[in-house]
Specification:
The protein has about 400 residues and is an alpha/beta fold. It is built from 15 helices and twelve strands.
Length: about 400
């Protein structure tokens, strides 16, 4: 019987041990034993499905991956130590020397560094398009282009890419469509429905939801996941069983947590739109968002991330951070605790002004990861910081 999202997240787990536990136990083991020489041979030959070594698979990581696979409507997946390990391993497995990537310019800073500093070492080049220039994507495609890449909503400017359009372009030009779905989670958005071949998550964020552990996951078509698995099996970026256990338990509350995050975020965004010291507010489910109609088409709710611009540029942005009392100053997001960052003076301060603007990062831009505190307390803290 097919169950709803919330039921699958709670009831899908590995087989019970002889102890008939109600909650899956931790399998803190680096390796596994075999019955005899033939059992070991057949297992390594993949003639039977069996755990060999926790760098390859483990009951805890398998359970976590299987849940994400079901949530994203994928065929297979692999879990990683971090979100960036998932991003790099996907590219490392699927690209060869001389290949080309077309990507939205608005990507996470470490992904941008991967494109501009490390992939070129293997003669892999990237061409960028801006969020508002999707009509130029086809002009960037070359005979050696293999991957079309985007994250939506984007980090940190919370722009939205049309997944249906990207899926159509990828299919038309026989490209692999790889989507970072971190901000939306599988609960709010399923890129595979729109033609994505691989979906990547930093599980560190909303999937964990409580700022406890690092993790990443890539899911998608089985043939592609097989290549990612083989690459990762040999290069070693595997998720730890403990982190997988934590993240699998986190998935049991993902829907209820994300719904409350979104409810709070919409109210905070509506407040920010009314404040005289805020130039603009970007939240996918605000009608003022430039891609509001696209967001409504492909997302269940608007997510928990808001980008807004404080009047006064970098200095006022720094002053705002110094004035918040309840909200945390942190590089993380998707936590139960509300987090604020000022990218121009922190995470993206080493970029030139031109490079920042290409990613939608103005001097006064503030990113808010809205948490699960009472929404009035969040609003009051932001208000007093803005009023100073």
């Amino acid at each position: 019987m097919k169950h709803h999202f919330e039921t699958e997240a709670i009831r899908s787990q590995t087989e019970k041990s002889q102890f008939s536990e109600h909650s899956v136990p931790l399998y803190l083991t680096s390796s596994f034993v075999f019955d005899d020489a033939e059992d070991m041979r057949a297992s390594f030959a993949e003639e039977k499905e069996k755990n060999l070594y926790s760098r390859f698979s483990n009951p805890n990581t398998t359970e976590f991956v299987n849940k994400i696979v079901a949530m994203e409507k994928a065929e297979g997946g692999y879990a990683f130590a971090t979100g960036m390990a998932a991003v790099f391993s996907t590219f490392g497995a699927l690209l060869n020397a001389g290949d080309h990537v077309v990507s939205c310019r608005s990507v996470f800073g470490s992904t941008h560094t991967l494109f501009t500093k490390y992939l070129p070492k293997w003669n892999i080049e990237t061409s960028y398009f801006r969020v508002n220039e999707v009509d130029k994507i086809e002009s960037l495609i070359q005979p050696n282009t293999k991957i079309l890449y985007a994250e939506t909503p984007t980090n940190p400017a919370v722009d939205i890419l049309d997944l249906e359009l990207l899926g159509q372009l990828a299919k038309k030009h026989n490209l692999l469509l790889v989507i970072d779905n971190c901000f939306a989670t599988p609960y709010l958005q399923n890129p595979i429905d729109f033609g994505a071949d691989i979906v990547i998550h930093s599980a560190t964020k909303l999937i964990d939801g409580q700022g406890r552990v690092l993790g990443g996951v890539a899911v998608g078509k089985s043939a592609l996941i097989r290549e990612i698995y083989l690459f990762s099996r040999n290069t070693g970026p595997a998720m730890s069983p403990f982190n997988a256990w934590v993240l699998s338990k986190s998935l049991e509350t993902l829907a209820v947590r994300v719904e409350k995050h979104c409810e709070n975020a919409l109210k905070v965004a509506e407040f920010l739109e009314t404040h005289p010291k805020v130039n603009l507010v970007k939240y996918p489910f605000l009608k003022s968002h430039p891609q509001y109609k696209i967001a409504k088409k492909q997302m269940l709710l608007g997510g928990n991330i808001i980008a807004f611009e404080v009047q006064g540029g970098i200095e006022k942005g720094r002053n705002f951070l110094n004035a918040v009392a309840l909200c945390s100053l942190s590089a993380n997001l998707g936590d139960t605790r509300t987090i604020v960052t000022h990218p121009a003076s922190t995470t993206h301060s080493k970029l030139s002004l031109e490079d920042r603007l290409e990613s939608g990062i103005t001097d006064g831009l503030v990113r808010v990861s809205v948490g699960l505190e009472h929404v009035n307390d969040i609003i009051n803290d932001l208000k007093q910081a803005l009023d100073l």
